[in-house]
Each structure stands twice: as structure tokens, then as C-alpha cells.
Design a protein that fits this description.
Elements (H helix, E strand, L loop, with lengths): L1 E3 L2 E3 L1 H22 L5 H20 L2 H20 L4
Antiparallel strand pairs: 1-2
GO biological process, one term: methylation
Protein name: Ubiquinone/menaquinone biosynthesis methyltransferase
GO molecular function, one term: methyltransferase activity
Length: about 80
């Protein structure tokens, strides 16, 4: 933690939050271009990243929504169905 003008700055939190956001945007891009299964891999990393952000912030709602999304993605990936 560093102080910048009296404000607490946590560089690792910033990195996880923005890293997960960028990776999820890359997942949306991969979906738009039909780049499967790369889109799923990117979404998995992004969802896990945002789950970690929720844990860091102790935000149970953020953790829940990303845990459910992760479960749904894993269930879909292991079902072997493709559309």
C-alpha cells in the first residue's frame, strides 16, 4: 500500500481488477469473431479475476455472481454440447 495525497493506493488490486476487465473484453471480442474455444478460456480467466476482486473487496454479491457464472461456464464446457 502506498499513500498518494492521503489516498490509499493498492497496486495489486488495481492490476487484478483491470487485468480481469481487459481479459473479459478480449473474451467478448473473441466471441464476436467466432474464435472458439479461445473466447471461453478468456472468459474463464476474466470471471476468476473478478471473483478474486470480490474476495479482496469482501463483496459477497460480486463473488456470488462470478461464482455462478464460473459454474455455468464449466458445466457448459464439460457437457460436450456445441451450437
Amino acid at each position: 500500500m502506498t499513500l498518494h495525497r492521503g489516498i490509499r493506493v493498492y497496486p495489486h488490486r488495481f492490476a487484478v481488477k483491470w487485468g480481469a476487465s481487459i481479459i473479459q473484453v478480449m473474451g467478448y471480442t473473441a466471441t464476436g469473431f467466432g474464435w472458439t474455444p479461445w473466447n471461453l478460456y478468456l472468459f474463464l480467466i476474466g470471471v476468476l479475476g473478478w471473483f478474486v476482486v470480490g474476495a479482496i473487496w469482501n463483496d459477497k454479491a460480486l463473488m456470488l455472481v462470478h461464482l455462478v457464472a464460473l459454474g455455468a461456464m464449466i458445466a457448459g464446457m464439460t457437457s460436450g454440447s456445441s451450437t
